[in-house]
Write a structure and sequence with these properties.
31% of the residues lie in helices and 21% in strands. With 205 residues, it is of the alpha+beta class. The longest helix is centred in the first third of the chain and has 12 residues, at 50-61. The radius of gyration is 16 Å and the shape is globular. The mean pLDDT is 90.
């Protein structure tokens, strides 16, 4: 499974665009409904990863920021930033490299993510997802171990529980390199939706 890093901000894209262009050295920004936007930074640029940008963006925009990094289908990390400071950190597999330690998720507090709700919150699904206990059978580990098969499904359920539509969740699981590497497919999927190149990034199509 592919790695991706994205930032979700509860500010409309047209309102956030000038700050995004100033802070993000390279990447793309997209609308995520009428009240949110997504940032897909080029994480190959030093200091331009999702966790490095989250603090400055939260300070400049005066809004909370949710940075997400999903690694190879195995692990989801989420950070909430407010006023330039990290307010909360979630890690679905904090002891990934230590098989002897307790592998319960770190920071599984549903209240920490409520600022990012786009509609009615499904509290049960949100708490279950953060606890790495999927509700839907198809997301469960086929070997019988507890937890999600893929971290993408966990991330999907978190955003779904916060009221985001499927189209927005799909875009929240794109990565800058996916977008740059398949411009024709990206153009077809966006179907006229506004995309803003940031920093040194050119339009992909």
């Amino acid at each position: 499974m592919s790695t991706y890093g994205t930032i979700l901000i509860p500010v409309p894209l047209e309102q956030a665009a000038s700050v995004l262009r100033e802070v993000c050295a390279a990447g793309y920004a997209l609308p995520a409904g009428s009240s949110f936007c997504l940032v897909h930074p080029d994480r190959s640029v030093p200091g331009n990863g999702v966790f490095a940008l989250a603090g400055p963006l939260s300070a400049e925009l005066g809004a909370p920021v949710l940075a997400a990094f999903q690694y190879d289908g195995d692990r989801l990390e989420l950070e909430v930033w407010r006023h330039g400071r990290r307010a909360h950190r979630y890690d679905s597999w904090p002891v990934r490299d230590d098989e002897t330690a307790d592998d319960a998720p770190l920071g599984a507090d549903p209240a920490a993510f409520l600022d990012f709700a786009a509609g009615p919150v499904d509290g049960h699904r949100l708490a279950s997802a953060l606890a790495d206990t999927p509700i839907d059978v198809e997301d469960m580990d086929v070997d019988g171990d507890p937890g999600y098969v893929w971290a993408q499904a966990l991330h999907w359920d978190v955003l779904r529980a916060l009221g985001h539509p499927d189209q927005v969740i799909r875009r929240a699981q794109w990565d800058y390199f996916h977008m740059r590497g398949a411009p024709q497919a990206l153009a077809e999927v966006l179907d006229g939706t506004e995309l803003i190149p940031l920093g040194t990034t050119a339009r992909p199509f």
